[in-house]
Each structure stands twice: as structure tokens, then as C-alpha cells.
Amino acid sequence: MILKMDNVIKRFNDHLALNYLSLEANKGEVIGLLGPNGAGKTTCIKSIIGLLPFDEGEIYVFGMKQDGKNQKIKSKIGYVTQEITIYEDMTAKDNLAFFGSLYGLKKPELENRIHEVAKIIGLEERLNDRPSRFSGGMKRRLNIGCSILHNPQLLIMDEPTVGIDPQSRNYILDFVKNTASDGTTVIYTSHYIEEVEAVADRIYIMDQGHVIASGSLRELISRIQGDSHILVDVKMAREDKKDELLAMPDINEVIIKDNQYHIIVPGGISIVDKIVSVLAPLGIVNVNSKQPNLEDVFLTLTGKQLRDEVK
Ligand SMILES: Nc1ncnc2c1ncn2[C@@H]1O[C@H](COP(=O)(O)OP(=O)(O)OP(=O)(O)O)[C@@H](O)[C@H]1O
Ligand SMILES: [Mg+2]
């Protein structure tokens, strides 16, 4: 296990920023950390890295206890901060060289890594330019580059796609998937539900310093999934087909109205194929269904809309 956080408490005066927070990450996993403003995501990240002392609980990173002093832990973590931290008036190459040297890389290794990383972040052609001329997305990619020069085993990214162009965003999402498949563990914090859906192997939903739900996308959705509704329009509805459907084990309710079968099933809609084959002799005109997504999970569990709160 790469990371284990166990019942961590962090107080800012009398404000509880982390409230018995527990989470885990395994090798090569992408962990999505989802939560509204002030949920405690950045505080959680800083505690993991050892940048912020916490009050209670325990954090183990790479099997070592996080006490804020362990340089071995820090040296294996890459941290993409919420605010972009690069030097605007130093060239991209000098930025990479500077951050690489902070991690202890020396020539010629540093030189090689700069070129490898420039390729990964798609800035090979722009190494001699200054970020003051870059787009937001390019700055963000350079910022990510600066945090991966030392080949971190754990890469923590705090909202890395806020305010950037779609192309850079896709670039970053692909990078996250690739780096995880190479064995790096990634903790990915975002306000964008669809990003977390796209990249995360496991998702932690945080609110008010606490994990309120965790699991794979499927597990989370099945947690809030009440019933799914399948709507099948046919040319001519028949009562005996309703009885046939109701005889199937996974069907709770069938309502016929205006040549439409409204079928309610517990859980997912994987049964739709069977329903279609029962109703096919009636001449199917249209099939529709609605399934909850991560947005619905978030809304149900926190009572908050995440998207409205993007800065
Ligand atoms: N240095 C600090 N001093 C006092 N309170 C703080 C400090 N840092 C964070 N907090 C408070 O702790 C809570 C959690 O903040 P944190 O920055 O971890 O949230 P977040 O989930 O990262 O939010 P955002 O999505 O806005 O980045 C907030 O209520 C915040 O105001
Ligand atoms: Mg934050």
C-alpha cells in the first residue's frame, strides 16, 4: 500500500478542517478526490506530504509514518499545487532544471530528464520560451512537468485543470492514465465530476473534512441507485406481455400507458436486453432509460452542486 490515512483530524483554531479522515491508495491507482470548496482536499494533501502538521490520527506513506520530518517520503512524492508555481520569466527549460535540481538531480541525468519530461508534457518545441508567453494550459503542463522530474512514486495533483483549454485538459487526463499504468500512484483532486469519472479507479467523496462515500464509480452509483426506469414504446401494447415481464425476477413494476411500457427495475439497466426480447413481437418503436451518474451520487450525498462552486 502506498498511502494509508487513518482517522486524521486537523483543526484550524476551532474549525475542523479534517474530521476523522481516512483514505488509502495502492500502487498504480488513480484516486479521485472530489469535494466542494472548503471540503478539506488541499488540507488533506498537505498533511499527506508533510507540509502541514495534523492533530490526531496517523498517515503512512510508502509504509513510513508521516511526521513532517521524513525527507524520504517527500523525495518520492510529486506535488502539483492548486496554484500554478513556476517562474514566469525563466525559460521552460530553466524552470524544469531548477525544480529538478531541488529534487537533487544533476547533469547529465537532469538534462536527459528535462527532455523526457518536455516530451511527456508536450512542450519540447517550447523549452526555450518563457511561460509569460504561454497559455494557461501550457503553464499548467509545465507546472506538472516540474513535479515529475524525479519520477515520483506518488503524484498528487490539486485541481490541475481549472481554467485551462480542452486540449491541455485532455493531455493532462491522458498523462494521468499513462503514468498510473506505468505504476505511479496518482491522487487527483478536481471539481469536475466528468474528469474524476474518466480517470479515477477509486473515488473518495469528501465534505466538511470527512469522507462521506468511497469506491469505484460503479460502486458509488449502485449505492444511490434506487430504481432504474426503462421506457419502451411499442406499436400495440398487450396486457399478457406485462404479466410476462412481471414474472421476470429483476422487474419490480410494469405500467402500460399509451402503448408505452414503463418498467421499473432495481439496480442497473443490464436487464434491458431481456425486456426488449419479450416486447419485440409487439414492434418496438423506441427504448429509453435513465441511470444515475456520479453527479447524482454527489448531489444525493452532499446536497450540494459541485459545478456551481468552481472558482
Ligand atoms: N491556513 C488555514 N488557516 C485557517 N483555516 C484554513 C487554513 N487552510 C484551510 N483552512 C480552512 O479549512 C477548510 C478546508 O480548506 P481546504 O483548502 O483544505 O479545502 P479544499 O477542499 O481544498 O477547498 P477548495 O476546493 O476551495 O480548494 C476550509 O474551511 C478553509 O477555510
Ligand atoms: Mg483546495
What labels describe this entry?
311 residues, alpha/beta, Rossmann fold, Alpha-Beta Plaits, 2 domains, 34% helix, elongated, binds adenosine-5'-triphosphate
Report on the architecture of this protein:
This protein has 311 residues and is of the alpha/beta class. It folds into two domains: 220 residues, Rossmann fold (3-Layer(aba) Sandwich); 64 residues, Alpha-Beta Plaits. 34% of the residues lie in helices and 28% in strands. It has eleven helices and 14 strands. The strands form three sheets. A six-stranded mixed beta sheet has the order 6-7-8-3-9-10, sandwiched between helices. A four-stranded antiparallel beta sheet has the order 2-1-4-5, with helices on one face. Helix 6 links the parallel strand 7 and strand 8. Helix 3 crosses helix 4, helix 3 packs parallel to helix 5 and helix 8 packs across helix 11. 37% of the residues are buried. It binds adenosine-5'-triphosphate and magnesium ion. Magnesium ion (MG) binds next to helix 1.
One letter per element, helices H and strands E, the order comes to EEEHEEHEHHHEHEHEEHEHEEHEH
Bound molecules: adenosine-5'-triphosphate, magnesium ion
From the alpha-carbon coordinates, what is the Rg to the nearest angstrom? 24 Å
β content, as a range?
A: 25-35%
Span from first to last CA? Answer: 34 Å
**CATH class label of the largest domain:** Alpha Beta
Q: Residue ranges: pLDDT <50 for 5 or more in a row?
A: none
- CATH topology of the largest domain, by name, is Rossmann fold
CATH architecture of the largest domain: 3-Layer(aba) Sandwich
Mean pLDDT: 90
Shape: elongated
Structural class call reads: alpha/beta
Helix count from the secondary structure assignment: 11
Let me know the number of strands.
14
